[in-house]
Amino acid sequence: MTTQSANRLFGRRILLGISAGIAAYKSAQLARLLKQAGCEVRVVMTEGAQAFITPLTLQALTGEAVRTSLLDPEAEAGMGHIELARWADIILIAPATADLMARLAQGMADDLLTTLCLASEAEKIMAPAMNQAMWRHVATQRNAARLAQDGWRLLGPASGDQACGDVGPGRMLEPEAIVAELIQPISEAPHENAPAQGLHVVITAGPTREPLDPVRYLSNHSSGKMGFALATAAAELGARVTLISGPVSLSTPAGVERIDVETALQMHEASRRLAASCDIFIGCAAVADYRAEAAAEHKIKKREGEDGLTLSLVKNPDIIADVAKQRDAAGGRPFVVGFAAETRDLEAYARDKLVRKRLDMIVANDVSAAGLGFGADDNAALLLWRNGEGESGASLPPQPKTQLARAVIERALGCLTPRPVH
Ligand code: C5P
Predict the structure, then answer these.
(1) CB of 336 shorter than 6 A to ligand 1
(2) C-alpha distances in angstroms, 362 versus 232, 281, 341, 373?
(3) pLDDT at 280 over 90
(4) Ligand 1 center–CA 357 separation, angstroms
(5) H helices of 258-400, where?
(6) Rounded to 5 degrees, what are φ and ψ at 319?
(7) Is 244 helix (H, G, I), strand (E, B) or coil?
(8) d(CA 82, CA 124)
């Protein structure tokens, strides 16, 4: 149980903004949980949000009148919108729709909620929620990155079944998870002298999905847990983190910018674009080695009288090797960390990859060990790196992926100065 002194929400004034998504029905539970955590809660709803949940519900739960309009003389005669903006310690928008994100990213003030966001110096947090295609859209990703740069903390979205029948990223984090994120003591936030402060870390994570036809694909069992743990560790150590993620059911770590991709080619494109200007590039994704030469336009049908089916595959680019190669030509020099999942001769194969792919460091896992590696919460690793003095290594015993991730990031930071010379 959280004690009152450890609960940073106790006594805080939360302005809960609700926009027009189906997840708005969960905002009622969120308001209750915030009240239970000891917050003062006032609710502002956009016009569209009221089609999903009534102001009366939120009024009953918070004990406060719900504000819905900027141009409401009666409400303005009470607590005017500027006073309300000053009143809030935290503005929490849940759900935040694609439209609201776009308006906030542009600095618009075309309704009460967006006006309050501009007028308030409160801490700003949002939980995006929308259809998976809308979330993945380049415009929404651009807005999410802009909002993060502007100081917004984005919680989620989570991946999974969606109200519209789709499956993918875009679900609002559950109210309990949102409150758990908010309740974390401030001491867990990166501090001034965090060792990765000022560095940009780019991480690939999860599997890739290579379409065969509109309904089938080639993929693998990567859960993305290790890559997400690395992103969390790097952010906690103060880095700006961009996570390029294949399809996984994990929510975005706090303070991390996430770019969702499906295929190896999409991951390649995003990696090339970001690697040129980052300080550390970590290739943790389990990239499919091959893709269909051409995905069929229509569903591939069973053929009567034929027992076999031959698929024609072509090799995907080796993303990390390409990033490591690119940096020399472009003059940009990210420190490049790769992963090697092996079932035998771990060290020999890992050393070969370190040299052949021109990596600066490699994290080698024995994936034949029970309870470790793919999908598990724990992992062990052999770390090998190259620096000015030649090659060095360290063996990390089985431990939670979160701890292992921290050790990997700390080792990479230790190798950054002096910069590796090849
Ligand atoms: O060659 P192998 O797949 O074992 O190498 C693993 C390492 O290479 C990982 O860091 C992985 O993210 C990266 N990789 C890549 N692009 C590929 C294949 C692997 O970036 N096409």
Answers:
(1) no
(2) 19, 12, 10, 15
(3) yes
(4) 9
(5) 264-275, 319-330, 346-356
(6) -60, -50
(7) strand
(8) 16
- CB of residue 88 inside a 6 A radius of ligand 1: no
**pLDDT at residue 398 in the model:** 86
Other C-beta atoms closer than 10 Å to the C-beta of 263 total 19
Is the distance from CB of 126 to CB of 93 less than 8 angstroms?
yes
DSSP 8-state class, residue 294? S
What pLDDT was estimated at residue 373? 63
How far does residue 367's CA lie from ligand 1's centre (Å)? 15
- Give me the mean pLDDT over the 222-237 stretch: 94
pLDDT digits (tens, 9 = 90+) for 109-159: 999 999 999 999 999 999 999 999 999 898 998 898 889 888 898 888 887
Whole-prediction pTM value?
A: 0.60
Summarize the confidence of residues 66-72 as an average pLDDT. 93
Q: Whose alpha carbon is nearest atom 21 of ligand 1?
A: 318
d(CA 142, CA 150): 12
- Bridge-based pairing of strands 13-18 and 40-45 is parallel
The residue extents of the domains of the chain are 1-189, 191-300+307-422
Measured CA distances, 313 to 14, 214, 218, 219 (Å): 54, 16, 10, 13
For 298-341, write each residue's pLDDT tens digit.
999 999 999 999 999 999 999 999 999 986 555 667 999 999 99
In the chain, what is the straight-line distance between the N-terminal and C-terminal CA atoms, in Å? 52
340 CB near ligand 1 (under 6 Å): yes
The answer to whether 247 and 206 are in contact (CB under 8 A) is yes
Q: What amino acid is encoded at 344 in this protein?
A: R
CATH architecture under which domain 1-189 falls: 3-Layer(aba) Sandwich (3.40)
Percent of the chain with pLDDT over 90: 64
Q: What is the C-alpha separation between 32 and 11, in angstroms, rounded?
A: 14
Query: Which CATH number is correct for 191-300+307-422, 1.10.10.10, 3.40.50.10300, 1.10.3470.10, 3.20.20.140?
Result: 3.40.50.10300
- 378 closest CA partner among 411, 396, 402, 343: 402
Token pair listed for 245: 């993620």
More confident residue, 160 or 355: 355
